[in-house]
Write a structure and sequence with these properties.
This protein has five helices and ten strands. By secondary structure, the protein is α+β, with helices and mostly antiparallel strands. Helix 3 runs antiparallel to helix 4. 31% of the residues lie in helices and 29% in strands. The protein has a five-stranded mixed β-sheet with strand order 1-10-2-6-5, with helices on one face. It starts with a strand and ends in a 7-residue tail after the last strand. The protein has a single domain, classed as Ribosomal Protein L22, Chain A (Alpha-Beta Complex).
């Protein structure tokens, strides 16, 4: 079942974020329920690329195998022709796909899970407002608050096409929107140059299956 939550104002660029659960144990082709960490990461990568092709094919009106998916010099996927822009992120079996026909977009998803020594990294990776919110949060909420800010940073960096060393400039140049209705997930999208109008689609489930992994 897909739950949609939309936020839009006149003139805002439209972004759709589809959240997918990559359930490797629901395939029907004989994979074991228990996988090694390395094998699971590979299976999640393949299942994620398959889900991406299926999702883009629906938007482009073609077969998944005909989606003109390419890799740039950094190994990041993009669509030839520039008709549709997208960004993807994976975490702990979850996949987020952001698409837009209006603008450059970035997305990041993080499963909320225990993170050791979080206080030691807050000062190095978060802006002042983010640091203040993490430090003010109750201990049980601190990781979730940190990851909420982290996804905003990652989404902004992706929207700008830069690296994490440019995070402060990207946070200013690419306004972000966070999703607060996905239990157990921190999720954010960003658009370069304008505040995005985001439609969050939560979630669908995709099992592991053979497919094109590029």
């Amino acid at each position: 079942m897909v739950e949609s939550v939309s936020f839009r104002a006149l003139g805002e660029p439209r972004v759709v974020v589809q959240v997918v659960r990559l359930d490797l144990d629901c395939g029907d082709h004989g994979r074991p329920a228990s996988l090694s960490p390395a094998h699971r990461r590979r299976e999640e990568f393949v299942a994620g690329r398959r889900a991406l092709r299926v999702h883009l094919a629906t938007l482009l009106g073609c077969a998944p195998a005909d989606v003109p998916l390419r890799l740039d010099e950094g190994g990041r996927p993009y669509l030839a022709g520039g008709e549709l822009r997208f960004s993807i992120s994976r975490s702990e079996g979850w996949l987020a796909i952001a698409t837009s026909r209006d603008c450059h977009v970035g997305v990041d998803v993080e499963a909320v899970r225990p993170l050791p020594n979080i206080d030691a990294v807050v000062d190095h990776v978060l802006p002042p407002r983010g640091r203040a919110e993490v430090l003010a949060a109750a201990p049980v909420e601190r990781v979730a608050v940190f990851l909420r800010w982290w996804t905003r940073i990652e989404a902004a960096v992706k929207a700008c096409g830069d690296g994490l060393d440019a995070a402060p400039a990207c946070l200013a140049a690419a306004p972000q929107a966070s999703c607060d209705v996905a239990p157990g997930l921190a999720l954010a999208a960003a658009v370069r140059g304008a505040r995005p109008a985001v439609e969050w689609r939560l979630p669908t489930t995709v099992g592991a299956a053979p497919g094109v992994s590029r």
